[in-house]
Amino acid sequence: MVGSEKRLMLKNGKMTIKLCNDEADSFMAKAIEKSERYKVLAPEHKAPYGFNHPHSHFVGMVCEHAAFVLFNEIELSTGKNLNIDPIFQNSKRDGECDLKVNDLRIEVKGIKYKSWKDFGPCVSTRQYENIIKKADVVLWVLYNEKKQEFSFEGFNYVKDIGLQPIILTGVEGRPKIENYPVLDILKPLKELPI
After folding, report:
1. H or E element: which one contains 111?
2. Quick one: which of 28, 34, 78, 103 could link to 57 by a disulfide (CB 3.0–4.6 Å)?
3. Domains in the chain: how many in total?
4. What are the pLDDT digits (tens) for 161-189?
């Protein structure tokens, strides 16, 4: 296990968490199981993200864990009780937000660098319909898979996301997805109301 002082760092002005390889790897089996479950619940092209792939679930799950680690590290370093509720760890609470921190309902959105560079942070219109019912903010986590590092790029208030113009994005050769682009309304992590 990496020591507390090495898990949370400031890199390029962003709070960054480093995980151990085995920590991240432990989520792959859960991601495969979730993908299998979604095959039944959301047939092809009906998944909230537009497609259902184990690696996509893996990125989401490992970013949720990294966010949990971040808030625990903040709590440890400040001595302030954040009342962290890791909802994502309980599959029976699957329809809820991912984390609660001092009653702030947080939906974690994990994204890899290439997707961030190519499309920017976006919330699909289908996913937004669910997020608005269960979360107050969306926390953006940029995942560097090679280094097992997660930088916290900022957050959006959920109520502001639906006010953005809808655009179509997607990888060439796949169906395009209706998305709300949110880069222009991204708020810095230090403004998170916790």
Report:
1. strand 104-112
2. 34
3. 1
4. 999 999 999 888 888 889 999 999 999 99
